[in-house]
Amino acid sequence: MLKKAADDRGISCRFVDIRGIAWPGGLDVSEGDVALCRCVSHGHNLAIAKLMESRGVRTVNHSSVMEACGDKVITASILDVAGIPQPEYRVAFSQEEAVNAAESLGYPVVFKPPVGSWGRLISKVNDKDCAESLVEHKSFMGPNHGTFFIQEYVEKPGYDVRALVVGGKPISAIKRASSHWITNTARGAEAQSIPLDDSLTDVLSSVYKAFGGDLLAVDLFQNGNSWSVNEVNGQAEFHGSVEGSGVDVAGAIISHCKSLMEGDK
């Protein structure tokens, strides 16, 4: 989709799978270049962005935005500082305190790995017995699971909302509808268009102001005319947004990258 958008606009670009190269010799970049980082792996994306930035390359997104959006603990702290509504949460650093935190929120709660995507390894926990079992299992999954991010469970009306912000401008929003409590399109949710009204645009503008970033995907819960931000993604896929909204997301991204090449960096 990105290649077609570039070809349609006559924009020259190279597509490189970094799994086939080694830094620095395998990637020919120069100061002033713009690189759109689309690695599936968050770790790969962050590493290659930092390396290219050390050579004066303008990355999309900047590595600082990747870090902020790639870790749910950091994301929650930024939303707190900005005063942007989000589900109530707790962060714990031991099995015992993770269970206590879940108890303090009140069941059901949702355990999420601080770093992860596609709804993988998130768990809805309905009682203390389940919480105790889950945190014990997590404790054996390596250091990345030693920090426990626990969020209140939000009853949704069968959907959540995914909105995209490109270059600071909200460009599309979709409902992700599913009978399952996890509503990622990667997990089979149906994408349906939703208008970018004033209330939604206002909260998206607040998120952009707090995080910056060239491309943000914001996941939200709706309650009447009010919104709470569930997650902010800095390296989102967008096929579901295109299918649901009809917006040329790839074109918007490519055009934004071109504007950065032309000097708006």
From TrEMBL:
InterPro entries the record matches: ATP-grasp, ATP-grasp_RimK-type, ATP_grasp_subdomain_1, LysX/ArgX_preATP_grasp, PreATP-grasp_dom_sf, Rp_bS6_RimK/Lys_biosynth_LsyX
Species the sequence originates in: Dethiosulfovibrio salsuginis
GO MF: ATP binding; coenzyme F420-2 alpha-glutamyl ligase activity; metal ion binding
Name of the molecule in the record: [lysine-biosynthesis-protein LysW]---L-2-aminoadipate ligase
Superkingdom of the organism of origin: Bacteria
Gene3D superfamilies reported in the protein's UniProt record: 3.40.50.20, ATP-grasp fold, A domain, ATP-grasp fold, B domain
Annotated keywords: ATP-binding, Ligase, Metal-binding, Nucleotide-binding
Residue stretches making up the ATP-grasp domain: 76-258
GO cellular component terms attached to this protein's record: cytoplasm
